[in-house]
Amino acid sequence: MTAVEQRFREFKMPDVGEGLTEAEILKWFVAPGDTVTDGQVVCEVETAKAAVELPIPFDGVVHEVRFDEGTTVDVGTPIISVDTDPGAGEAAPQAAPAAGKPAEEPAAEAEPAEKEGRQANLVGYGAAPASTKRRPRKPLPGPQRSAPAPSAGAPAPQEPAPAPARPEAAPSPSPALNGSGRPARPLAKPPVRKLAKDLGIDLEAVTPSGPDGIITREDVHAAAEAVQTARETPVAAPSRAVEGRERRVPVKGVRKATAQAMVNSAFTAPHVTEFVTVDVTRTMKLVADLKQDPAMAGLRVNPLLLVAKALLVAIRRNPDVNATWDEDNQEIVYKDYVNLGIAAATPRGLIVPNIKDAHAKTLPELASALGELVTTAREGKTTPAEMSGGTVTITNVGVFGIDAGTPILNPGESAILAFGAVKLQPWVHKGEVKPRQVTTLALSFDHRLVDGELGSKVLADVAAVLERPKRLITWA
To answer: Which distant-in-sequence residues (6+ apart) come within 8 Å of 321 by Cβ?
Structure first.
């Protein structure tokens, strides 16, 4: 490693979750020239699980920000470089793209690619496959492999380098095809991707003309002109009116991950849902009393808290419901702990953070954990760790005025309880019809490992506790 490489350190996109491969840069908190210290948050990124703030692990002055906000970057790709010894002089690493806008000219990529002995990365594709399979380049003049610090004579031998590359690559866009002959994920640099997004062009429909099947700006503009020509024909006139009444939003981040997880869950685990309507008048009175209890001062006390406690009691009485189906090993994994998930609607989509070891918490501890979970989710600061390892989930559809539903299992869990709205309804109580506080509970479970008897017992126990909450003590 040269002195320049030691001085200019790169911070790479880390894996902030469990095996995540990419993240979108939501916001930069620093710019070139800013001083940063070890542990300082430099940007916020969104993964498939949550929005996460990234701290930098060294001190220095920001030399370069590699990607714009809104760009999706592969894990392991450098996103920012820092001058760790700003007082050492004006030496700088080899030419790099401008802040947030990686260079588009082949000459700018050739030098670092040759220096590192591999092909420069494109966002979203990683380095491993390209580094071993790219087309060999013709030998370049000696100065092309000079030291990292640019010299006065270095640009001259680089100028003719792109000339032979383009004629060879133009006739054969085959790298953009996979083994089956179908188009693979299109290759394009971040500025070109942004241009395509701004123009509303689908990169998968663009024919690449750049080297190694890379889509260029000219390719995108040509595709845009073709679309515009089609829109100007009489046939396209009605579509313009429709476009004015539609809004398209890319599916990505948390919403994309949730959608895929729900599809996998719905078509992998055989769902069964059971319902029960319960008189929860005594539970609602207990909620009112607990709000006045000094032991619960400052804590979030609501019906959901007692529903959570009732479910934990039911699981303790029927522990086999707290399990996971291991398809790979053909085993049922029974768990002696409960990480209680609470479905939360956020601006980025539905997430399910969980309370670790909820079974071991007292009522005040459970209330505190539940309050922190909800607040963190609403602020968009839930971490991937807080959404991992759940064993059973509650979804509170009642806050939307909904009576019941058939919830889909959170992947990897065996049961999910839907808590409906609490409403004043006529109810037979002690032989007379009286107005009572009533709600509906729905329990969905994985029928591979939870049969009808076990699922019914769990739901009946939850209902029994909410009907007579003193069972929280007698069944403890």
So the answer is: 314, 315, 392, 414, 415, 445, 450, 454, 455, 458
Total Cβ atoms within 10 A of residue 279: 20
Res. 349 pLDDT band, cuts 50 70 90:
confident
- Listed in sequence order, the residues at least 6 apart from 49 whose beta carbon sits closer than 8 Å to its beta carbon are 17, 20, 254, 257, 351, 384, 387
Q: What letter would DSSP give residue 177?
A: B
Write down the catalytic residue from 63, 271, 429, 447: 447
The CA-based angle 424-443-384, given to 5 degrees, is: 110
Is 63 catalytic? The answer is: no
- The residue length of the chain stands at 476
- Note the pLDDT of residue 212: 75
Q: Contact, 340 vs 354, CB < 8 A? A: yes
Coil, helix or strand at residue 436: strand
Does position 123 have pLDDT exceeding 90, yes or no? no
Residues 6+ apart with CB under 8 A from 353: 341, 342, 344, 373, 376, 377, 382, 386, 387
Q: Are 11 and 64 in contact (CB under 8 A)?
A: no
pLDDT tens, residue by residue, 167-218: 444 444 444 444 444 345 678 777 778 788 778 888 878 888 888 788 888 8
Q: Quick one: CA torsion of 51, 57, 58, 62, rounded to 10 degrees?
A: -20
pLDDT band for position 138 (cuts 50, 70, 90): very low
Contact 371, 296 (CB under 8 A): no
Alpha helices, DSSP H only, in 270-387? Answer: 281-291, 303-317, 363-378
